[in-house]
Amino acid sequence: MQITFDVDQQLFHLKNDQISYIMGIEKEKYLVHRYFGPALSSYHQVNALQLIDRGFNTNPDCSDRSFSLNTLPLETSTQGSLDYRIPNYQFRNKQGYRVTAFEYAGYQILPEKPKLTGLPSLSSENTQTLEITLEDRQQNLRMHLRYTLFEKLSVISRNVVYENLGTDAVYLEIAGSMMVDFPSANYDLLTLNGAHTNEANLSRQALHSGIQRIDSNRGTSSPQHLPFIALADKQANEDQGTVIGAQLIYSGNFVAQVEVEQYGSSRLQMGINPDTFEWKLAPNESFVTPEAVLNYSTAGLNGLSQTFHTLYQKHLVPTYWQNQPRPILLNTWEGNYFSFHEDELLIQAKEAKNLGIELFVLDDGWFASRNDDTQALGDWQVNQEKLPNGINGLAEKIHNMGLLFGLWFEPEMISKNSQLFSQHPDWPLQLPDYPMTEGRCQLVLDLSKVEIQDFLIAIFDEYLKDGAIDYIKWDMNRHLTEVGNQTLPFDQQKEISHRYVLGLYRVLETITKRYPKVLFENCSSGGGRFDPGMMAYMPQTWASDNSDAFCRTKIQTGFSYLFPPVMMGAHVSDVPNHQVGRITPLTTRGNVAMSGNFGYELDIKKQSAEALEEIKEQIAYYKDKRDLIQFGKFYRLLTPNEHGACAWLFVNDHEALVVYSHGLAQPAQPLAYLKTKYLDQTAFYQNTVTKEVFSGSELNHAGMLIPRIKGDFESFALHFKKI
Fold this sequence. Notes:
The protein folds into three domains: 2-315, alpha-galactosidase from lactobacil brevis (Beta-galactosidase, Chain A, domain 5, Distorted Sandwich); 319-542, TIM Barrel, CATH 3.20.20.70; 650-722, Sandwich (Immunoglobulin-like), CATH 2.60.40.1180. A hairpin with a 3-residue loop joins strand 2 and strand 3 (19-26). With 723 residues, it is an alpha+beta fold. The chain has twelve helices and 38 strands.
């Protein structure tokens, strides 16, 4: 791993064993992208810049009409200064002008990546960072472009620090985290889109002239569009071909976009959504952007996923949880909803313990007058009628059974029908003279305010200080509206969306550092805020409120492009399923849920003796395979097709697990073989049930016959030991 600067060629070269990233300085001013791809032993500009006198182009030097910023492959750019493509930054000064003229001013190579003030970011272990400084000398503005290289990963992470060294305030209207220009537009555009209960659908479409964009203006990263975008070769698939993926480590409003310009190049840009953002930079103040990850794969989408999985598990999630096995849980929500009493909970917990479950989670309804979803959010005092011995009393009894204990919160919300609102009507987000719009009968607390952040920190201190709670499910069930307050002046109101996210991060940073062994699970009506920003504090996310096994094959497949299974909460629920009414076999519900972070969400008391016996067997099976599933490598063998058939592979140095879901049964089922593709070619693998032995090469290339399956939504799991 090395970062070098070739003085003669005026080139920066960031290189490890997997990739090279190369930039050059043109005319001593302009930072130009030259290469991003497989590692190069050396570089002598074989891919020379194409300089042509183009009509309608503007030229910084009128004597050289072939040199135009509007055709150069730039590393950052703004509009109004000779480049008409989508910008990565934009300033406005006190006169209202938006023109700047940033030029190269120097660089430094740092032995590791700097921490980002107030923001989650990847760890600095085994990294080097190149920081390139650009200056606008007319207004005394400066920006630092940071590029971090990781020793053994095909990743470059990027962010920008914008500085005002002048004497007047300026307004940062666009604060992009990264931009890169590619010489070709012969790619397909990949995004992950969806909705509540239908998250993470992979979309693939050809790039075309103009701008293709995804974004969120909802206050969170959102289930509608994940902060992820990729460019893939036309022939790229799960197992082969080049894919360049980018993801933003941020939990708020974002934009990710690609522009195909008039001469066939493409610009990829990502950062905070400028539609809901502006930042006032006073003299001697700076603004730090979220970190963006650029991931390069020559092994298709599975290769891209492997790098994301390793990067986030080793460089992002809290250190304690990087290699810590996750407990099998029972969550009370779909089994009880708001109706429960301590005596009933203890009966359920005892049965859960008998089945082998390790963590008992009490979901919504345990506090104040919370008997439905219209009231009491913000009043985090225990409901003594339901829990006469309080949370600590219940937790003690749960612990005495040998179970861990978890508790649900929705701390960012407040109900109008609450004591907290009557005491602090100014705490929700709101605008003067306009009504506060409720969603789900609740409002959003203004986390841009320090006093509200402190209030939430104190609430969690009160519940966590005694060690009675081992797990917190942190929910967030509506998006932001009326984003304003009467604290900030008029010219800083567009800062609130970002300040909200910074406030959230301050709360999370504080409590997770104080209680590092408490397992926090991220949730926003399921996967509504499933992003790496949240993963920096909460090492797992409830992937979707949709627990139907057939739907979950698609949802969990979608999230697997970015996150490993250990980060995805997945539960076995009752049938008919509460979201879609579908009836699926308990075996299939178990196989699909076991392919994530395993748990149950059903009424144990209503299960038949046969079902309880099967649940007990599922739990024992998962415990035996837990290390493989949670910390092995994960590959998609078959992504859900039009009938819903899906197959996944978990593999480590000692064993492998294949999980196959058949989806809808078909007449005249065609002959099909499932190829494992990723096993050790030279090894032999024994089926632990049939005792049959196969070579890795035949499993990879000849494949296993998919048996004739009659009945919808059937599945099977095959476990192999490496011998």
